[in-house]
Amino acid sequence: MEDIEKAVFPSGAGTSAGGLEMRCVVFAHHQDRLVLIRQRKDPVYGDAWTLPGGVLDYGVHPRLCATRLLREQTGENPRTIRLVGVRSGTDGDWILTFQFEAEMPEETTLARGANEVRFEAVDAKIPEDLHPWARSDLEMYKVLRLVKPAHLPPK
């Protein structure tokens, strides 16, 4: 776990979120292609395509939850996963969305997950059939990709 994450997410958190909903979105990529998922008749997204992610377990490190959600939704464990941003919003409730970037393993098949899965080129136009919330997250991710932190090596 990176030192900055240890400071933000200490161990031993409580069991009640106190009105705070924590979610994550995972920008999972494989060979410059982004993973999109579709959960049939999802209560939030309906039949729209979206990015992997979901509600995080309170009291568990967000990176661990994001890894578990990605594995459940795609059938694969990421090769690497890192926090790239945190976004907050209020729409009746307070929602924190943790944004992770994950690199999928070379032999990724994505055939064992619980959802329909497809790939889109990372730098392609945002797909028209993407849910509006996922569209917003993906637009932000594309901007984040342009601004690389100085301590990270080029891809």
Number of E-type strands: 6
- Helical run tally: 3
CATH superfamily: Nucleoside Triphosphate Pyrophosphohydrolase
CATH architectural name: Alpha-Beta Complex
As for the number of domains, it is: 1
Helix fraction bin: 10-25%
Identify the CATH class: Alpha Beta
Structural class: alpha+beta
What composes the largest sheet? 6 strands, mixed
Q: Give the ordered list of helices and strands.
A: HEEEHEEEH
**CATH topology descriptor:** Nucleoside Triphosphate Pyrophosphohydrolase
Note the overall shape. Answer: globular
Tell me what you see in this structure.
- The protein has 155 residues and is of the alpha+beta class.
- It has a single domain, classed as Nucleoside Triphosphate Pyrophosphohydrolase, CATH 3.90.79.
- Helices cover 22% and strands 30% of the residues.
- Strands 1, 2, 3, 4, 5 and 6 form a 6-stranded mixed sheet that branches.
- The chain is globular and about 40 Å long.
- About 7% of the residues have low confidence.
Architecture blueprint of SSEs:
Layout: H1 3-8, E1 20-30, E2 33-38, E3 53-55, H2 62-74, E4 80-90, E5 94-103, E6 116-121, H3 132-146
Parallel strand pairs: 1-5
Antiparallel strand pairs: 1-2, 1-3, 2-6, 4-5
Keywords:
alpha+beta, six-stranded mixed beta sheet, Nucleoside Triphosphate Pyrophosphohydrolase, 155 residues, 22% helix, 6 strands, 3 helices
